[in-house]
Amino acid sequence: MSAVLQEGPKPGEQGGIEVTRVLPGQESLLTPAALAFLAGLHRRFEGERRARLAARAVRQAQFDAGALPDFRADTAAIRNGDWRVAPIPAALQDRRVEITGPVDPKMVINALNSGANCYMADFEDSTAPTWANLLEGQRALRKAVAGTLDWMAPDGSKHYTLKPDAEQAVLLVRPRGWHLEEKHVLVDGERMSASLFDLGLFCFHNAKALAAKDRGPYFYLPKLQAMEEAALWDAVLSQVERELGLAQGQLKATVLIETLPAAFEMDEILHALKERIVGLNCGRWDYIFSYIKTFRRHRDRVLPERAQVGMTQPFLKAYSELLIKTCHRRGAHAMGGMAAQIPISGDAEANEAALARVRADKLREVTAGHDGTWVAHPALIPLARELFDAHMPEANQRHVLREDVSVSRNDLIKPSLGTITRAGFEGNVEVCVRYLAAWLDGNGCVPIHWLMEDAATAEIARTQLWQWLHFADDGREPLHLDDGTPVDYALLERALIGLPSKFSDRLRMPGASRINEAIGMLDRLTHADTLADFLTLPAYERID
Ligand SMILES: CC(=O)SCCNC(=O)CCNC(=O)[C@H](O)C(C)(C)COP(=O)(O)OP(=O)(O)OC[C@H]1O[C@@H](n2cnc3c(N)ncnc32)[C@H](O)[C@@H]1OP(=O)(O)O
Ligand SMILES: O=CC(=O)O
Ligand SMILES: [Mg+2]
């Protein structure tokens, strides 16, 4: 079913907006005025979005030809200049514990009620962007902002309601990244940018109400690769403010530094958004994915298996310390990231080991100078809070300047030591298949072997497999597992054949009905001559 909307408040802007799928109740979100607003954003910014994506491809071609990322010569004045970001609003001064998660109504209520300081409602790494998920998420957030969100468990066993405003976490919203498009909304026949759809629709319905409560709106901006992309966001946010009659600088952003190229432009990104940026965040999982992607053709920088790539690897330590130093010099928050462990029910010993790893990670963050951290699960909030309370007595530690830190280009790209074991190789295959199957089934974040898996963590597994397997291209010597087995397609085949024995939980598995499709996709992605930019691009064509 398809609806072409002909009406709206501004003559000349209503035509040419087509919603290609209609679900019950969506008309209250996708009003003619909302669609006209979205179309205005698309028409104004689509050209620049495409130019930015093209610039990413040009840069990657240089890396593939052997170039290494470096700090930019043309922006040295920004790095050396003495400037600070605009003052941070009161609601975002203390962000010591932030919970993140997908946007279904139960999660939204649980997260807002969780006792965390902030909640990042996530349309990106942890949401599979089916049309139903997106609309349900926007609807839930609108009701949450209005204070009317509730949810009844399907079996009627529990009715979820929101705590009073003052006891709720502060809401931040993460729209999808620049690379994604929204196929259900066409403007002049083109798919609109998913980033503009998510952020634009949220602002259209909630910006005034949030501004009236001195609560933003606040955003997390994902997967940027360069300061020009930050400048594009700045222009978008400024346009949204103008169109919706908000004060300039009302919308605030925290940018995830989660690509390797962006680590070389932290100052520049802060500068491009300096009237509205409040912090940077170490999005470690996408960062590792980006490191692999950037160096896909660099044999000397192959990473060991996923489990060995922890934050104490020198290249990751350098990145987090540079982020802290850069943010604090500019008056911005330096947010930490996500430990992948989640609570393990039914096994006290394993649970304690998992919690110990989260504890060690949060302790590292707070003692290094981070102003706050992320948790994936409400049960981890007390643990993170206890460590930040113990080591960060004030609301934040922006005064800790970390002038002792000196990070060079070589530190940021330092090769890592480690191995690839059979379990590591097979684990990557299993995670890719299970996660893809869940994602295709509409679930963007799942526990697998008691680790939180989302689009970023799964991307590490997927790009590692491609990279490891492609080292045998052009007749070169393949990589080897630590037991001497060559890493080749025969090994992949054996891992795929062995998968059913790992699926003893098949009946309860998220996305069980799409396992064969996921296996087919992984097979194609790993055999392809070119590394797909994002797993979610081909997968998106397979969801509603
Ligand atoms: C790399 C990155 O981008 S990190 C950011 C993106 N990733 C995330 O945000 C991870 C979010 N986390 C999650 O989605 C979940 O915690 C999962 C999928 C990992 C595990 O979820 P579950 O298997 O449902 O966990 P579990 O059964 O222990 O949940 C217990 C309760 O906590 C709730 N809960 C779990 N995680 C969250 C969360 N992140 N936010 C709010 N509530 C949550 C569940 O809804 C459940 O509530 P209920 O008791 O009312 O039914
Ligand atoms: O978005 C967070 C990440 O680690 O990726
Ligand atoms: Mg990410």
TrEMBL record:
The active site is at R174, D454. Gene3D superfamilies: Malate synthase, domain 3, Malate synthase, domain III. GO terms for molecular function: malate synthase activity. Its EC number is 2.3.3.9. Keywords: Acyltransferase, Glyoxylate bypass, Transferase, Tricarboxylic acid cycle. This is malate synthase. Coiled coil: none annotated. Pfam families: MS_C, MS_N, MS_TIM-barrel. SUPFAM superfamilies: Malate synthase G. GO terms for biological process: glyoxylate cycle; tricarboxylic acid cycle. The keyword Transferase applies. NCBIfam families: malate_syn_A. One of its GO terms (cellular component) is cytoplasm. Belongs to the malate synthase family. The keyword Transferase applies. Residues 26-75 form the Malate synthase N-terminal domain.
